[in-house]
DNA sequence: AAATAATGCAACCGCAGAGAC
DNA sequence: GGTCTCTGCGGTTGCATTATT
């Protein structure tokens, strides 16, 4: 199989425009698939895998190039929280984006961003651990907690009443999932964190809590 | 202007799952 | 049930470009 693609004969490295043209016309003639036969049929000196990747990531119609919009960025962050490194699943929710692109974008931009956010949150947590939380914070957290409860309750109700027929998630697994992902509000509902712990995470994640509920049918 | 370091992204690699035989 | 082949996925590498010294 792959091993058949002898390293000596197979061309590697960046694709040239003329190679793209050949690949494009091959797919137009024979359709997607049968990548293993491509070097015989098209004359391209590329391996099947390489052709498949080139087509999928760059030549396929409706590929969106250029920077990510803030909406896309936000969705990637939220989906990554939810799914982890399941790049193809995440990319599936971003029309025109490929798993490779999403993965690269995460590794080069968002990973750093999220790490620095987490660092800030940890610093804040250190500061708030031993001091009494201000009245204002208490109010904010209280509001956030209520909002989160509402979101969860709504999701649970919709699942139970069959309003979300496409969801395969039950009340209990959803709660379990919430805990599993370690969301502040998830813990807040199921087994409340210490007040200061909750306060450090709730604002970053509150926005996501609504999105999480929106993503409910995907699970 | 040249050298070096950092960054971003295209492409490759190894592995696993699915289907055909 | 075992083997072979194809396909897709996630992790990693290599290189071109850009920034910094």
Oligomer: single chain
Give the N-terminus to C-terminus distance in angstroms.
34 Å
The secondary structure category is mainly alpha
Q: Give the topology string: H per helix, E per strand.
A: HHHHHHHHHH
The level of helicity is 55-70%
Radius of gyration: 23 Å
Number of β-strand runs: 0
Inertia-based shape = elongated
- Count of DSSP-assigned helices: 10
What's the structural domain tally?
Answer: 3
Strand content: under 5%
Average pLDDT confidence is 62
Uncertain spans: 1-7, 128-219
Provide an overview of this structure.
This protein is mostly helical. The chain folds into 3 domains: 8-59, Arc Repressor Mutant, subunit A; 66-130, Orthogonal Bundle (Arc Repressor Mutant, subunit A); 132-219, no CATH class. 66% of the residues lie in helices and 0% in strands. It is built from 10 helices and no strands. Helix 6 runs antiparallel to helix 10, helix 7 packs across helix 9 (184-190) and helix 7 (135-160) packs parallel to helix 10 (195-214). The longest helix is centred in the middle third of the chain and has 30 residues, at 99-128. The chain is elongated and about 60 Å long. The two termini are 34 Å apart. Residues 1-7 and 128-219 have low confidence and may be disordered. The protein binds a DNA duplex (21 and 21 nucleotides) through residues 1-2, 4, 12-15, 33-36, 47-50, 52-54, 56-58, 85-88, 99-101, 103-105, 107-109.
